[in-house]
Design brief:
The protein is of the alpha/beta class and 537 residues long. It folds into 2 domains: 265 residues, Rossmann fold (3-Layer(aba) Sandwich); 164 residues, Rossmann fold, CATH 3.40.50. Helices cover 50% and strands 11% of the residues. It contains 21 helices and 13 strands. Helix 4 crosses helix 12 and helix 13 packs across helix 17.
């Protein structure tokens, strides 16, 4: 009897362990994340989603190019995630060269043909990388086993892979999630049938606030229409047209992806961004990388503590800094000159040296998560270029900002910083050391900026789940239940029905006919009345 009793206890324990391992009965799903070849800010943002999915018990795999992600920076990722790799020879070198050139063109304000050529380079890389995936039959076979693809909107290869698996392999149960790492992407809203009102919604790179005069609304409308067309043509249509023909994919993909995409995650939050209408399939997940700070390395921690009550200013221009030191070296010198005058200590995040001639209060470190520095109790200010993740991390930790936008949508971030009262803007074209010193001192000395940032921080933090957990929840919900119930019927309407053109034409015709009959009747009445008067005469 004792033996049977022990066996019974063992069965109970094993059952309990199995129950706990399945997270209370929740199935474990296979999730594939695709983030712009596997490096940079897009990868870091999507990694946060992957971590939350893992905590919920799901298997997470990244589809990345060979050589990504960077082992020295993301070493822990190789223990957390699985990786599916494709091999496009020369991709890493071409990307690094293209981004360096983009930084140069952005900082030097050069454009025209050079920008067009560079955009064509990115288009070709997107096409060639996806073509390599399609040519790897073993990889495609493994991809067919996933429950969901989550892809970054700037490299939508996953959508074309799904179409191939559906039409050629009979795989019907893969769900698709599109992720946009920019604050507001009108193309994503257009795909999801969410309304966009240029009358009060600033378009990307418009440098406008929601309160616009007539000419600003006109410019905003033209910018919106131009961006919808350019994004669809350069990111969606042109790069993958040959793949649609070669592999007999869904021809509708030449126009839009909304027949295949089930959910849209957008890096926005109304604590910072202007409010706008969204259809239910659009989920705001602003602040994916904003979280509680982790402990710093001992030497960095000692430097932070040595700042005393004055605290530390964090300075980061991302990958742009290395370009600045060669294209416009006077700008780094201006910042160093300005930083030398303030009582605070300064940490500069930079992969380049800059070890000669540093002021005593300045230290350069090659890499450290910006979020961890911002979450330190000694951090007083962030001076940076206006990246979308940086503003959320700063606001999350209640740190005010000085923003010097260098290109892209960074000017829009600067507008939000100023309009929300959480910082000020620097113009690189009129920059001087004195100007930098004045603006930095202004934000450090006036408590209103810090108070505004802390107030918005309270709003950003006060939500049921973090942005990463919200993303994981909706991905899981979509796999379990589907999200067809969230699909607006407007996606199935032709243009003239969607915008009620037929209704307005009908009403116009009806009003015209009624008015015509009324005029005719009135004319007939007066004619009869006139004829009676003539008869009496």
């Amino acid at each position: 009897m004792a033996v049977f009793h022990r066996i019974g206890e063992t069965v109970v324990i094993l059952t309990l362990m199995i129950s706990l391992s399945t997270k209370g009965g929740v199935d474990s799903y296979n999730v594939l994340l695709s983030a712009n070849f596997g490096d940079g800010s897009h990868y870091i943002a999507m990694r946060a989603i992957g971590e939350s999915l893992m905590k919920k018990g799901h298997e997470v795999t990244f589809l990345v190019a060979k050589g990504f992600p960077h082992p020295s920076i993301h070493s822990e990722d190789f223990e957390k995630f699985h990786f599916e790799r494709f091999n496009l020879p020369g991709l890493k070198e071409t990307l690094e060269d293209a981004y360096a050139k983009l930084s140069y063109l952005t900082i030097s304000d050069r454009g025209g043909d050079e920008i067009s050529e560079l955009m064509e380079t990115f288009q070709n890389l997107n096409r060639d990388a996806c073509s390599v995936v399609f040519k790897d039959s073993a990889l495609l076979e493994r991809l067919s086993t996933f429950d969901v693809f989550v892809f970054n909107i700037i490299w939508p290869c996953s959508v074309y892979v799904k179409s191939y698996l559906e039409r050629q392999k009979g795989v019907r149960d893969i769900q698709i999630v599109a992720f946009s790492n920019t604050n507001i992407n009108p193309y994503v809203l257009w795909e999801a049938a969410s309304p966009f009102f240029p009358s009060f919604q600033p378009s990307p790179m418009s440098r406008l606030t929601p309160r616009m005069n007539f000419f600003e609304r006109l410019r905003n409308t033209l910018t919106y229409l131009s961006m919808i067309h350019k994004f669809r043509r350069t990111v969606i249509s042109e790069p993958f047209g040959d793949l649609i023909d070669e592999y007999d994919l869904d021809p509708y993909l030449r126009i839009a992806m909304n027949n295949h995409v089930n959910l849209y995650l957008v890096h926005t939050d109304f604590s910072i961004d202007p409010p706008f209408a969204m259809t239910p399939s659009v989920i705001p997940v602003g602040g994916l990388t904003a979280r509680a700070a982790k402990a710093l390395d001992n030497d960095v921690e000692e430097f932070m503590k040595s700042s005393g009550d004055d605290g530390v200013v964090v300075f980061s221009l991302g990958s742009y800094f290395s370009t600045l030191t060669t294209v416009l070296p006077e700008i780094p010198r201006m910042f160093l000159e300005a930083f030398a005058k303030i009582p605070q200590k300064v940490i500069i995040l930079s992969k380049v040296g800059l070890v000669k001639g540093l002021p005593e209060n300045v230290r350069v470190i090659p890499w450290l998560p910006l979020n961890d520095l911002l979450g330190h109790s000694k951090t007083r200010l962030l001076v940076y270029h206006g990246g979308s993740s940086g503003i959320f991390e700063a606001v999350y930790h209640g740190v005010p900002l000085v923003v010097m936008p260098l290109g892209g949508d960074q000017s829009d971030i600067a507008v939000r910083v100023v309009s929300k009262g959480i910082g000020v803007q620097l113009d690189k074209d009129t920059l001087t050391a004195e100007n930098i010193y004045e603006r930095v001192t202004e934000v450090l000395s006036q408590p209103e900026y810090s108070e505004s940032s802390k107030r918005i921080s309270a709003i950003l933090r006060d939500r049921p789940m973090t942005a990463a957990d919200t993303s994981a929840y909706w991905i899981e919900h979509m796999i379990k239940h589907g999200v067809d119930y969230l699909r607006p019927s407007s996606l199935d309407l032709p243009f003239y029905q969607l915008y009620l053109i037929d209704v307005f034409l009908f009403l116009f015709a009806l009003i015209f006919i009624v008015c015509w009959i009324f005029v005719k009747a009135l004319n007939a009445y007066f004619q009869r009345k006139s004829s009676r008067k003539l008869k009496r005469l």
